Amino acid sequence: MQTVIEKKGYDPAQNADNGNRFLTGNGYMGVRGTPCEFGPEGMAAVNLAGIYHQKGDAWREPLNAPNPLYFEAEGASLAADAGNILSHALSLDIADGTFHRETAFSLPGGVLHIAQERFCSMAQVHLLAQRVTLRASGSLSVSLRAGIDSRVWDIHGPHYDRIDFAREDGVIVADAVTDDGKTVCAALRLCTDEPCAFSGGLLSLTAGLRGGEVYAYEFIAAIYTSADCADPRGAALRAVQESPGYDALLAQQRSAWNSLWDDARVIIDGDPRAEFAVNYSLYHLMSIAPRHARDLSVPARGLSGQTYKGAIFWDTEMFMLDFYLGAMPQVAASTLRYRIATLPGAKKKAAEYGLSGAFYAWESQEGGREGCSDYNVTDVFTGRPMRTFFRDKQIHISAAVVYGLKKYFERTGDDGLMREGGAQVILECARFYMSLMTKRILSDTYDLCDVVGPDEYHERVCNNAYTNEMARMTLRTACSLCPQYATDAHPDELAAFADAAGHLKRQQPDPQTGVIEQFDGYFALEDASVDAVRARLKDPREYWGGAYGVAAHTQVIKQADVIALLYMLGGYDRSVTEANYDYYEPRTEHGSSLSACMYALCACMIGRPEEAYPLFLKSAEADIQGGGKQWAGLVYIGGTHPAAAGGAYMVLLFGFLGLRFEGDGFSLHPCLPKGWTRVSMNVWHRGTRRRIVCEALPS
Ligand code: IFM
Q: Average of pLDDT values for 318-336?
């Protein structure tokens, strides 16, 4: 089974994608897949989970730690790209989460080979380890600099007011402090016998390399922050002093990853490309899973940097949760506890808009704080921020939280989260929708007006089909669950929820065509093709949505919307699914990495695995292929795509294998793509790990 992904040759244009493609992480931190001499110019980053900072009025975003694995050999740097690169390769082994790099540079006295192996410890999440080896073809004297890099890559920084460096008992320590008193400490134990100078976090030395011999430098580093403990400096120092050596840490790493893979590995006989792509996706989901935390969730760009402000979106509940439930149920619980813990933030947001209940942040940061600004895209032509309505109108976010809690309960059979506050969350979300619904005097129908559905190119629409059904699901879930748990629900209130759920407008399938209108008036918009709309762009980075975006006045949509409804909530006839798939797919730009998997799932529901297959690969290979959308207007949105990774898992499990949970058991309704002869994997369900094996009948 393939476990290694490799890219040969040096192409600076690939630096951003490679940083994502070769990411290593352990849920506490993510280290971009960049060579050890890269700094901010190469987007090197040690991105931290759950700790954020706002510099002045700029966007609040997660902190990157000072990079404690910096190493540079003078004259042999990809970052400098002096035209002396003879060969170069990056690779990642998903079996044990190790990143590798090998480069040969031509230097005046001979050839210098630099090899680098590093990992974020899965066994001890505060630790990072790296081994750099040098080998020269002739005798060389090379100046080296190694240590903690003071240059931190920030999108909306700089976040640190100061970074203080010290060297104590052979350990380099960096204390990075923000203006609101947050501290990030990095400690590094770097073994070298050569005499060195120390300045600004870096050791400098001259290495005399004899031809053919191998020289190894081992880095053991630790990161702690003030969000972890009262004395992060002491904790980081102790962690590196008490840590075993590189080889022992690597052995721990292999054993930790082995046990994760025991639960997660997917075997697809007959299609090595799909097998690798799925497992690579699962690798990413495991690398960013907050196994160490009780109530932490997973950001939309994982731990690949500060894009999307390191925030938690609906991506987690709607696209990633199935994987965590199936392979890491304790992580699924942590992501939902995050929502329970951030209920006060959601209530505050609702109150700010004059609404009741819980309006979860569209881009949720610590404490449920809203990270999304009113101006979320920068216009390419004017350079001015554009008013977007994601923050205030994507009200389907609260229903996503309810959907996740309900799914957790159904899949695990464990109502612990309901008792821990989940039921109150559901109640507050129902209250939120009640406070938003309107009723026309002359009609018996209730409306949800002025919303943005999953398709972000059409803002401020009325009765978005997806949003209305998710709101109805929320109201009904509150009615059925709240009476069973200690909440402050009043019986009259629950009766009002039931009434509202019965009267909220449903976008019905058209009696002739079966197509569901995405929102009131959608069918009246210009029916232009995606290509025709694309041809109207004056700049490739132009934003398609907003008031004047090229798609806004057409039927071209950014991502699955009605199709997401059909899959997520189900309950529609197959003919309706078929009609909507055929209608919406050609009108969808798939401008979000969340889109393809939903279409793939619907294609499987209507028995078209061959149409599902390329959409499935698009999701599973989102970070292998790279090159996804990097810009929304002038705002950088690159990074890894964990929702696409989770979507690929959903397509495999619920699409191609057709898994349906039934009480404590399950059934399979497979529609395997051509060439797949056997699929096997484990899935946790109701507290038991189940083995799923699906074999194609010989043709
Ligand atoms: O949550 C998504 C949204 O649906 C489309 N834009 C990107 C967000 C983060 O992935």
A: 98
Q: How far apart are CA 394 and CA 359, in angstroms?
A: 10
Tally: H helices and E strands in the chain? 21, 28
CA dihedral 419, 421, 427, 432 (to 10 degrees): -170
Nearest CA to ligand 1 atom 4: 454
Reported confidence tier of residue 636, pLDDT bands at 50, 70, 90: confident
Asked if 530 contacts 556 with a C-beta cutoff of 8 angstroms, the reply is yes
Is the Cα torsion angle 530, 533, 539, 542 positive or negative in sign?
Answer: negative
CB of 315 closer than 6 angstroms to any ligand 1 atom: yes
Tell me what the mean pLDDT of segment 652-662 comes to: 97
Task: Kindly state the average pLDDT of the residues 684-690.
Answer: 97
pTM higher than the cut 0.70: yes
Q: Is the CB of 313 under 6 A from ligand 1?
A: yes
Q: Kindly state the percentage of the chain with pLDDT values over 90.
A: 95
* Residue 117: per-residue pLDDT: 98
Judge contact between 647 and 597, C-beta under 8 A. Answer: yes
Give the nearest ligand 1 atom to 308 CA: 9
Three-state DSSP at 95 gives coil
Give the alpha-carbon dihedral of 658, 660, 666, 667, to 10 degrees.
-40
Give the single-character DSSP code of 570: -
181 close to 53: Cβ distance less than 8 angstroms: no
Residues 6 or more apart in contact with residue 193 via CB below 8 angstroms: none
| Averaged pLDDT for residues 609-629 | 94
